[in-house]
Each structure stands twice: as structure tokens, then as C-alpha cells.
Design goal:
This protein is an alpha+beta fold. The chain contains 5 helices and 5 strands, in the order E-H-H-E-E-H-E-H-H-E. It has a 3-stranded antiparallel beta sheet with strand order 1-2-3, covered by helices on one side.
């Protein structure tokens, strides 16, 4: 017999850095147990923000699924910038090649709503545009 799902939450923590606190307070789970499990599974992803889908069951048990780092964070790391442009339509803060966009798209593919790598590349390129990062070698 399957457990009854009480709640599904989407939250983000730094890899290996989850702590009991307000983000988990309303979940109704044993926070230290979740933090230990999350930190153990994400220790090798240090420096990343890790989105997680937390499913809480009626017996206070839980399960969680780790997602890939946010697209904007991966783009900033690849481009070597601290933040995107405040005027994305007119100000270019960095440039990425189509090959770099393809690498990001391949990494993000499991979490993107795309069936092909080309579609995933267009999603990543759109995020780049919104951040003021120019993509070279790719048609619009």
C-alpha cells in the first residue's frame, strides 16, 4: 500500500549546505534527517545551488528528487560573470559560443521541457538573452 502524500515542495539549498530553518519549517518533517540526507547526496556539487522537489507523506516520512542547477547560475559560471545585465536589451555583459550553450543545454536537458538538444539550446539561449549574454554562432 502506498503512503498518502501530504505536500510537495520545491526548494533550493546550496550543495552540501542544507540546515534546519524557515524553508523547511512548514514541511512537517524531521529537518535534521532531511538535511543530513540532502547534504550527503550533494557534497560533490559544491558551489552549486541545488533545487530539490521534496515530497512529504502523512507519516512524517519524505522523499526528494535533486534537480540540476538553475540555468542562470550555470550561464554565469560558464561566462565568468557575477551577475547578468540590468539592461538586458541593450547591455551585453558577456559572450558565449554556440558550443558552450550546447554544453549547458546537455547538462540541463533532464529538467528542461524540450525533446531535442536544439530545442534545449534555444531555451538556454533565451535565458542568455534575458541576462545580457550574447550567443555567437547560433541563428536566432
Amino acid at each position: 500500500m502506498s503512503k498518502k502524500i501530504v505536500r510537495v515542495m520545491k526548494i533550493q539549498f546550496p550543495a552540501g549546505g542544507a540546515k534546519p530553518g524557515p524553508a523547511l519549517a512548514g514541511a512537517g518533517i524531521q529537518m535534521p534527517k532531511f538535511c543530513t540526507a540532502f547534504n550527503d547526496q550533494t557534497r560533490e556539487r559544491a558551489g552549486e545551488t541545488v533545487p530539490v522537489v521534496l515530497t512529504v507523506y502523512d507519516d512524517k516520512d519524505f522523499s526528494f528528487v535533486l534537480k540540476t542547477a538553475p540555468c542562470a547560475e550555470v550561464i554565469m559560471k560558464k561566462a565568468g560573470i557575477k551577475k547578468g545585465s540590468s539592461k538586458s536589451g541593450s547591455e551585453v555583459v558577456a559572450t558565449l559560443t554556440a558550443e558552450q550553450v550546447k554544453e549547458i543545454a546537455e547538462y540541463k536537458m533532464p529538467d528542461l521541457n524540450a525533446n531535442t538538444i536544439e530545442a534545449a539550446m534555444k531555451i538556454v539561449a533565451g535565458t542568455c538573452r534575458n541576462m545580457g549574454v550574447k550567443v555567437t554562432g547560433m541563428e536566432a
